[in-house]
Amino acid sequence: MRPKKKWGQNFLRNRGAVAKIVEAVDAQPDEVVLEIGPGEGVLTEKLVALPNPLVAIEIDPELAARLRARFGERLTLRNEDAVDAPLPETPYRAVGNLPYNVGTPILRRVIADPHCRRAVFMLQKEVADRVVAKPGSDPYGYLTLYVAAFASARIAMTLDPRSFHPPPKVRSAVVVLDPRDPQLAAERTLVLDLVSASFRMRRKKLVNNLTGWRNLTREDVLSLMQRAAIDLDVRAETMSLADFDRFAVAYSALASPGS
Q: C-alpha dihedral over 140, 192, 86, 40, to 10 degrees?
């Protein structure tokens, strides 16, 4: 069937990549496999061979009907939008060729879900580079740190446009994400709010971006940076998750009654 632009459909046709993706899922006996965006079912036909229950979320009603007719009872098919569709309430591993236009929000909600045990996602290469970036590199930013707050990440493979129909204009990469506890001392929501504010203007110094955050004055920010042993001239793009955690701890102590 003809791919629909409104849903960013680029169907995977590389059979070798499919085998490697299924291998990376590595589902355990007590886990559900959740496929997001099965499309033509190239990946689905390999996943249904696994002993695990398979649930697929497909936004396109025409594709959903074809998949339901093709795989029958071997597949639980839900014609929903994965951006806000309910996720399994039991342990699961997520996998899918995510549409470029919604890949990031889907990734973020899946790795933050307490029942997720692993996610194997095909993403635009540029997004994948941001997910695994190191401090000080150009791709490093809020998405990098958001992912680090929930999971470890690695790129399993990179694919050129010829692996898809129709061929996209950019390269793609498969990212494997394993949920982990980063052992933050501060509340994770506070740390992520701090990170978001810190990257408000990427090239500005941290003190400038955080002045006004939660009503902090410039002097407040500088004082907190000193307490957290953070260079007063630093920019967010060179800070680790641990650096932001230390600042958040210092802020929490300042904001708590009696501090």
A: 0
What distance lies between CA 71 and its chain's CA centroid? Answer: 28
The owner of tokens 């790795």 is 111
**Do 162 and 230 belong together in one domain?**
no
CA distance 123 to 159: 10
Number of domains in the chain: 2
Do residue 173 and residue 215 come from a single domain?
no
CA 224 to the chain's CA centroid: 30
d(C-alpha 70, C-alpha 225), whole Å: 59
Yes or no: say if 8 and 100 are a contact pair by the CB < 8 Å rule: yes
The answer to whether 206 and 234 have CB atoms below 8 angstroms apart is yes
> Whole-angstrom Cα distance, residue 230 to residue 246?
9
Q: Which of 179, 209, 227 delimits the end of a domain?
A: 179
HSE toward the beta carbon, residue 63, CA cutoff 13 A: 23
pLDDT digits (tens, 9 = 90+) for 109-155: 999 999 999 999 999 999 999 999 999 999 999 999 999 999 999 99
Please tell me the pTM assigned to this model: 0.92
The answer to whether residues 59 and 156 belong to one domain is yes
Cβ-based neighbour number of residue 121 at 10 Å: 27
Q: Which of 140, 147, 96 is nearest to 122 (CA)?
A: 96
**Beta-ladder partners of 120:** 95, 176
